[in-house]
Amino acid sequence: MRLIGFMLNLAALTAVVLGNHHESLSLSPAEHSVVRYTNESLIVQCRSPDPDVKLHWKSPKGEIIREHKGRIHIEQTSPEQLKIVFAHIALADKGNWSCEAAEGRLHSKSFDLIVYQKITFTENVSVITVKEGDKDKTILCEVKGEPQPNITWHFNGQPISVDTADGSKYRILADGLLINKVTQSDTGEYTCRAYQVNSIASDMQERTVLMKIEHKPFWTHKQFVSMQYAYINGTASIMCEAQAEPPATFTWHRKQKRLHSNERLYTIEGDHYWSRLTVHVLNVSVFDNYRCRATNHLGSIERTKRLEQGEKPPSPITFQLRGFNSNTFDVDVSAPRGPEDRGPMEVNGFRIEYMSELEFKSDAGKWTNARRKDFPFEEGATFLITNLEPDTYYLMRAASRNLAGFSDFTKVEKYKTLSLEPRVSSAHPLPQSTSLCFGLMALMCLTLRLGY
After folding, report:
1. If you write DSSP's letter for every residue of 231-242 in order, what string do you get?
2. Average pLDDT of the segment spanning 255-271
3. Mean per-residue pLDDT for 138-158?
4. Does the structure show a pLDDT above 60 at 310?
5. Which domains does the chain have, with CATH numbers?
6. SS3 readout for 346-406
7. Which part of the chain is the Ig-like domain (predicted)?
8. Under 8 Å CB-to-CB from 359, ≥6 apart: which residues?
């Protein structure tokens, strides 16, 4: 009887153990660790084998989740299932979340929520301005992320090394880059680059800040010629170029009077860093001193140029094609020159203007949009006009240049580039307007001379 009683007790104990084994809770997804980024969503389902068991979810702090709506809440889909829903995950949600039976009869199930945060910058300023001479300036770059990103700095694309950062010029701070003794040479782009590596992904983000150094105007070109020539019924363009931050305001003056654009005497054009005064030389009264002033709130500079009367250069006496191929013209241009003791009004160069026949017709026969090339005077030299289209007619003209300006243009010539198609032999004679010649390029060329 004792043996029978022992066997019955053993069977009952085994049944209890087996029953407890089958009554374990289960989670879906079943991972022990779940990784998410901030603002992502997550749903974890807890299931009991016994529908009569009441389930609840606990936070990492041991608090029971009772809400049925909100950022973190529970949803009862069936008697044996209870879901926990994270609508928008926050960094504070990381930790161990557990599902338990209310009566404590079943084993609890839990998972570790690992939360990562992508790289974000708290600053969004893209341009900062600093006065020259300021002792120091900090370019802010506060970065958020989990795990904490690593930061590197670049100036105009070049890395700011650790050694340099520890020196007297730069110092890398937790929230930015400190620049000591700001000068104009510090103007440029500073890039804060953040790197982040974690178990599921890697990320790199950067932001660039343009730092401008405020300074008074200074001349763009140090070399300056104080005298310029023009001839009656011509024009004279006087340039004025200066760098400043903020950009300078340019004004033009003659004697004590400020000049303004008008159709008769003056045309003033400009941008942030230059201004051009064009004087229409109607008579000798315009030959005078012209003063350009560049000003911003930090200072002012000025220059004076003397406009003197000169002579109009003679037009070229030679303008002809010496050779050509499918994209180049070899042009011969010459002008009369004086004795060896050449004065300031001697021809010192040429301007060649050209445009395709189609462009000429589209512009109604005007040369306003023509392409042009300027060449210095060279005895016996020819000049190359390149980057032309093959098998295309071009209209061309030329003018001489001296210190007072340009001459009248020559009559218009019409030339054609070679085709890229292979030549085919023909027994037909060439037309009378066609001649073959050899230029300095040793290229056989076809010259069509048509006056426009």
Report:
1. -TTSEEEEEEEE
2. 91
3. 92
4. yes
5. 22-118 (2.60.40.10), 122-214 (2.60.40.10), 220-309 (2.60.40.10), 318-447 (2.60.40.10)
6. CCCEEEEEEEEHHHHHHCCCCCCCCEEEEEECCCCCEEEECCCCCCCEEEEEEEEEECCEE
7. 117-210, 217-308
8. 369, 370
Cα-Cα-Cα-Cα dihedral of 7, 13, 15, 18, to 10°?
A: -130
The helix/strand count (H/E) of the chain reads as 3, 35
Give the pLDDT confidence score for residue 102 in this predicted structure. 80
DSSP 170-192: EEEETTEEEEES--GGG-EEEEE
Q: What angle do CA 124, 118, 112 make, to 5 degrees?
A: 150
Q: Of the candidates 284, 287, 402, 401, which has an alpha carbon nearest to the alpha carbon of residue 343?
A: 402
Q: In the prediction, which pLDDT does 253 show?
A: 97
Average pLDDT value over all residues in the chain: 85
Which residues touch 189 (CB under 8 Å, ≥6 apart)?
155, 156, 157, 208, 209, 210, 211
- Amino acid identity of residue 4, one-letter, is I
3-state secondary structure 129-150: EEECCCCEEEEECCEEEECCCE
Residue 85, pLDDT > 50, answer: yes
Q: Nearest Cα to 234, choosing from 343, 316, 309, 154?
A: 309
- The pLDDT value recorded for residue 423 is 64
Distance CA 140, CA 174 (A): 9
pLDDT of 7 reads 45
Element housing 14 (H / E): helix 2-22
Closest residue by Cα to residue 191 from 207, 171, 215, 180? 207
Structure tokens at 274: 């230059």
- Could you tell me which of 318, 331, 281, 314 has the C-alpha nearest to residue 406? 314
Q: What does the alpha-carbon distance between residue 369 and residue 361 come to, in Å, rounded to a whole number?
A: 12
Task: Return the ∠ at Cα 307 (arms to 301 and 313), rounded to 5°.
Answer: 135
What pLDDT sits at residue 263? 74
Q: pLDDT tens across 9-51, in order? A: 444 444 333 333 345 899 999 999 999 999 999 999 999 988 8
Instruction: Please state whether the predicted TM-score (pTM) of the whole model is above 0.85.
Output: no
**In sequence order, which residues have a C-beta less than 8 Å from that of residue 253 and are 6 or more positions away?**
259, 290, 291, 292, 293
In single-letter form, the type of residue at position 72 comes to I
Distances (CA, A) of 308 to 121, 259, 287, 305, 376: 60, 18, 5, 10, 23
DSSP class of residue 162?
A: H
Specify which residues 433 forms β-bridges with.
Answer: none
**Most distant pair of Cα atoms in the chain: their distance:** 148
Q: How far is it, in rounded angstroms, from Cα 56 to Cα 104?
A: 11
Residue-level pLDDT at 361: 92
